[in-house]
Amino acid sequence: MVKVLNKRNIIIALIVFSAVFPLLTENNYLIHIMTSSFIWMIGVYGLNLLAGYTGYLSLAHAGFFAIGAYSLGILTVKAHLNFWLAFLLSLVITGLLGLLVGLISLRTKEHFFAIYTLCLGYIIYLVIDKWEGLTEGVRGLIGIPAPTGIGPIKFETEVSHYYLVLFFLLLVVLIMYRIVHSLSGRTYIAIRNSEDLAQTIGISTMKNKLTVFVLSTLFAGLAGALYASFVRFIGPDIGSISITFDLLTYLLVGGIGTLSGPLVGTLIIVWLSQYLQDFQENRMLIFGPVLTLLIIFYPRGLVGAVSAWNTKRIAKKEQRLSHNTTRIKGEPFIESEIIPDKKVKEG
Questions:
Q1: Counting CB atoms within 10 angstroms of each CB, which of 89, 161, 170, 345 has the fewest?
Q2: Is Membrane tagged as a keyword (predicted)?
């Protein structure tokens, strides 16, 4: 049973389930919610890469999410560019702004970095809200086009959009997996554990932190662009600080610094929110205490808790086997029983 429930088989099972999910239901609303979950997962992966693997908590993540969404919306609605060209340019714009912000913000550390990015995120929100000539202000951008077809593949239905977002989610997961299991990933973890020690062994901390920050903003911009093309209407609220705290909640519940934490946390909270729609105004009264207890008892979230439990179980099993082996090797009475038997047979 344990061999069946290994990490590779679980990932394969999740991919297969995601691929066949639209075939299991004819309810477009459920497909819509799952597509939204996938988009948020991409954004959470960006936050996880920065906060979970380098230890720098950015509270401007919703701002870069909004930059990706508004870049796509403005380029398609006002500049009338081709969708996929606008899509690529939205990522470039988000990445360049992330590079500029990172060069300044990463000169601060710990809570100063969090406060700086919190202020920056609010500034981005104000720019979007007040610059009516470009962003339409509180009216928002209306009529953002759906993705144009690629050859025979069209994205005109809910299901087709579902598979498009799923493709980008799997691409992000693959990129995250390659990063985490590479030398760069170990370098980021070294920076998280002790930045001063990382510098003493020759690691260019500023260069690595800047790389992670730009990648994090790119993931946020990608999620924002997909969100804009999915809902076809965006307003300033998508850049509010509440969106950042929602993404942070998904990450903390699933497991910060884990590869599958963003998937688990986002799915649980998004679907739980759907079943608690009557309590939307007071949802933090429900999630607040639960999140507090989770952070106290399971600081690495649900995935981290399961991983820790599995590690302890394996350690106990190995210790028990080692103890039994030692007893067999160290008990002389076993040899005294075997030798007479051999003598009887030989005689």
A1: 345
A2: yes
